[in-house]
Amino acid sequence: MGGAGGKLGSGFRAWLLRCIQLPADAWQYAVGKWHSFGESQKMAAEAHPLVMQPAIVSRLAASWTQLELEQKQEAGSSNANANGNFEAAESTAVATATVVGSADHLLLATIRADAVHLNRNNVTRTEAYLAIYERWPELHWALLAHLVSRNGGWNMTDLQGEWLPYLLGRSAREAVFRFLERANALIFQDAYPQLLLYEASCKAGRPLFHLLPQLGVSRFMVPVWQMFWESGDSAVLTVALIVNEQNYIENRIVQHPFFRKEVLDTVFFGLQSLLQLNAVLFCYRSGGEEMKLAGLVLESFDNLKERIEFGKRLYALLFAVPEVHGGAFAFAQAIRHTGSRADYASHLFAAIRRDPPKRPYKERLSGRRLAPSAAPLFSPELSSVWPDREVEAPEPGDWFRQAAQVLPYFQKLPLPHSFEMTNEYSLLLNKIELAVLASQQWKP
User: Fold this and answer.
1) Which 8-state DSSP code applies to residue 369?
2) What is the reported pTM?
3) 77, 136, 158, 366: which is deepest, by most CB within 10 A?
């Protein structure tokens, strides 16, 4: 009894000491926040703002409005067919079947096979995005997707890493992984074939975007790709892909009953904003200095509008700020993605655990560094903790309904006011460690 009480008392004292230190931590955070804001403004002064050309957006608006009309006509035709107009239905089916020739069938089969092969896990997806960006750097979305996908991999391995097993049980961690994996896999399954079709168009010397519906892509994207082929406006294409992918997962993931119950409506997911577990980080170096971090924190994942605007701000940060873009791309090319946070912070994390996990957890951080003699924080590689999962077919349907649904997103691409996160990330880690220490006080 006394031994157990002694252990509890020791853990409580460590937690209490951290709480007492919070005012000092808050002061350091405030100073760091001001420094980060200054660094952000300095880099922003060198930025080249991204602009979506109003004439192109106007043309797309007209195309999307036309799609609305066609969709209504199709709905009316479907009703007529249901009432016995079988001859018209057969005529439409024959016309559709003759659109795709044998060469196109072969191309589509190749694209589908490549997408399935590379959609095995977060690592293969992440590297696929980078490879196609290196071949076609006008596809800005591919680099953005690569870097965001790296963050997705880190979030997945965190579930089996140093801290989250103290905060989440096994079944809860499995549910969160399924959520992350399904969202990432569905976005890749929808977006990557579009990138491959663009590549095939470039090689063929002619646009092949009439094949997009055969790949299950929303009709919303067809005029966008046609416009991009003619104008080369990377900004409009990137925003359209952000809008498309977030709408694509809205009902399939965010509003899905299983993920609502097991992930999004749980207490832990509500704490994500507090702990800042939903930060997206871009790693970059400034000169010969140690790795720095730029990025943003998504406050509300289950808000579609916020996710889209968040994606737009990340895009503006990545491609408008030369120091961030150059540094992040250099990092992406130099450091192979494994899913371990040791990829970018080897001074804090290790992919292999030095010692068996011990309970209760003992504090290891001292500011931005490990405490003297403290072992690195365990951050495993993805392949060592999560086996590949088969990607189930997505629920059918096209999310696009009205031009008014999407046009507000094509007005501007604002650069965030503050985005340098090197100091803020240190506080983020300290907050998670404090949560682990605190959680042990109320567990039997």
Assistant:
1) E
2) 0.89
3) 158
Domain count, the chain: 1
Q: How far apart are CA 28 and CA 251, in angstroms?
A: 42
Per-residue pLDDT of the chain in tens (444 residues, 90 and over written 9): 444 444 445 555 555 555 555 555 665 666 667 778 888 999 999 999 999 999 999 999 999 999 999 988 887 766 655 555 534 433 433 334 335 678 899 999 999 999 999 999 999 999 999 999 999 999 999 999 999 999 999 999 999 999 999 999 999 999 999 999 999 999 999 999 999 999 999 999 999 999 999 999 999 999 999 999 999 999 999 999 999 999 999 999 999 999 999 999 998 887 776 666 789 999 998 766 678 999 999 988 999 999 999 999 999 999 999 999 999 999 999 999 999 999 999 999 999 998 888 788 999 998 778 999 899 999 999 999 999 999 999 999 999 999 999 999 999 999 999 999 998 888 889 889 988 998 887 665
Contacts of 392 (CB under 8 A, 6+ apart): none
Residue 444 lies in a domain: no
CB atoms < 10 A from the CB of 198, how many? 22
Residue 198 belongs to what domain range?
Answer: 2-439
- Asked, for residue 292, whether it belongs to a domain, the answer is yes
CA distance 50 to 71: 33
Residue 134: inside a domain: yes
Angle, helices 234-249/54-82, rounded to nearest 10 degrees: 40
3-class secondary structure, 306: helix
CA separation for the pair 111, 200 (Å, rounded)? 9
Tally Cβ neighbours within 10 Å of residue 199.
16
* Pair of tokens at residue 184: 């990432």
Read off the tokens for 383.
Answer: 């392949």
Scan for tokens 């007005």, then name that residue. Answer: 411
Q: Is 432 helix (H, G, I), strand (E, B) or coil?
A: helix
Q: Which of 178, 170, 118, 156 is nearest to 382 (CA)?
A: 156
For residue 124, count CB atoms less than 10 angstroms from its CB and return exposed for 0-12, middle for 13-18, buried for 19 or more.
middle
Q: Which residue has the tokens 């250099």?
A: 330
Strand ranges in 150-300 using DSSP code E only, listed in sequence order: 279-284, 292-297
**Spatial distance between the Cα atoms of 237 and 224, rounded to a whole number of angstroms:** 6
Question: In this structure, how many other beta carbons lie within 10 angstroms of the beta carbon of residue 394?
Answer: 16
Residue 55 within a domain: yes
Q: Is 377 helix (H, G, I), strand (E, B) or coil?
A: strand
CA–CA separation, 259 vs 39, rounded Å? 38
Report the alpha-carbon distance of residue 381 to residue 90 in Å, rounded. Answer: 53
Q: Which amino acid is at 338?
A: T
